């Protein structure tokens, strides 16, 4: 498995014909732990486990036949990453090599001050989720939120009312298997919206090609612009700072309650601890971003109806900033929703923006879009499987780099891949390891 798109959108260099096993997907660093394979294979055959590295990964309990594996390879966002359909690109008000299709791009936020405060940036996604319900467009929203029993962990959440959508507001940087029971959600046969990471949206768009229920029932897919999901061990380091154990926690909030707001921890016995967003992320060597994120061809939600980003106009989250988002409306459906939400007074627009400004505010995303083609090529040269990527203009993005920059990216990825540094250990559940000690 593994094809890379050319600048013309064609594919090249197939590396293998057999579908990858789940073990191969994981061990080659392609899995992001979305859970869709578990949903497709069924609970008794694949389990999602928390690994010692702090990643949610699939483990096969009963052997998967080749056709199930082929289906998983066709939908897994580690093996198949498709961009927006060419017709959408042609019809869009604007298309940009790096930023993809854009119907409208504004700076804005939730109009409701509570949502704006509690939300991760400006509460735009939460406000849209609430509006989708109140306007009767969908019956429920599928998103992610802190687990009630283990609040440092993240679980998929189904919200049927505005209060529940608000409960899920905020960024969950650790592992989140949003699609772990996606098949059951489709079985409900009710209209719903997905709010999730770009790779989650990629996965369900992949599934839509095989299962018509996705397009029938999933009316909207909204994403946030994503710099990468961290390992749970990143969050555990915060606990170590304060000498806390996970079972003592009643709250673990990464951010929100301000923009960005503090990383706040509360314990069942009433103690509270905070570090700033800057303290949480001050040392890039300790970000513990999952391997799949480093080669992410679409962390900017090109296949979502609307993608929402941070917008720190003061140059970064050094201090608390105005509650604000970049709102990238990508599809006609997204535009209808956005216009209706503004009309209903649910979203407020600060001003129009554009790809030049969002590129400045999100310069790390621009760098990654330009680097991924060379990184994937380097991995392929090292003989590693890479995802089949189509319609994401990766080669054109790479052409915005100099040859020297591409060589550095490509050789670096090749060498790291050869040393096994882009891969992961086989997935085993933590408890087994701990129990063995
Ligand atoms: C892992 C991660 C990396 C990010 N990296 C960037 C970045 O590089 N640049 C940038 O501009 N913004 C990034 N963000 C997004 C940013 O933090 C805000 O979430 C985004 O700007 C939307 O803000 P909001 O106020 O509209 O969100 P909110 O109104 O608070 O809504 C956020 C929604 O996202 C859902 N959600 C949160 N975490 C997850 C998750 N892990 N999986 C699935 N759904 C989830 C919540 O359920 C909620 O519905 C990242 C977020 C995450 C979780
Ligand atoms: S990325 Fe999702 S579908 Fe692919 S192997 Fe990981 S959990 Fe399964
Ligand atoms: S960087 Fe890409 S793979 Fe990683 S969590 Fe974000 S969208 Fe998913």
Put the structure in a nutshell.
The protein is an alpha+beta fold.
- State which percent range the strand residues make up: 15-25%
The number of helices is 19
Helix content range: 25-40%
Please report the total strand number as a whole number: 19
Number of domains: 2
Q: How would you sum up the major sheet? A: 8 strands, mixed
Strand order of the biggest β-sheet: 10-9-11-12-16-17-8-18
List the uncertain runs: 6-15, 433-437
Q: Helix/strand-derived class?
A: alpha+beta
Q: Which compounds are bound in this model?
A: flavin-adenine dinucleotide, iron/sulfur cluster
Overall 3D form: globular
Please tell me the overall pLDDT: 94
* Radius of gyration, whole Å: 21 Å
State the distance separating the first and last CA atoms: 37 Å
SSE blueprint:
Blueprint lengths: L3 E2 L5 E2 L9 H6 L8 H6 L4 E5 L5 E5 L5 H10 L4 E3 L3 H6 L2 E3 L3 E3 L1 E7 L2 H6 L5 H11 L5 E7 L7 E6 L2 H6 L14 H6 L4 E5 L1 H11 L4 H5 E7 L7 H10 L7 E5 L9 E5 L4 E4 L1 H4 L10 H4 L11 E5 L14 E5 L2 H12 L3 E6 L2 H7 L1 H19 L6 E3 L3 H5 L4 H16 L11 H7 L1
Parallel strand pairs: 5-19, 9-11, 11-12, 12-16
Antiparallel strand pairs: 1-2, 3-4, 6-7, 8-17, 8-18, 9-10, 13-14, 14-15, 16-17
Helix pairs in contact: 15-16, 16-18
The structure holds flavin-adenine dinucleotide (FAD) and iron/sulfur cluster (2 copies).
Descriptors:
alpha+beta, 19 helices, 3-stranded antiparallel beta sheet, 2 domains, FrhB_FdhB_C, FRHB/FDHB/HCAR-like, globular, Coenzyme F420 hydrogenase/dehydrogenase beta subunit domain protein, 437 residues, single chain, binds flavin-adenine dinucleotide, binds iron/sulfur cluster, disordered C terminus, 8-stranded mixed beta sheet
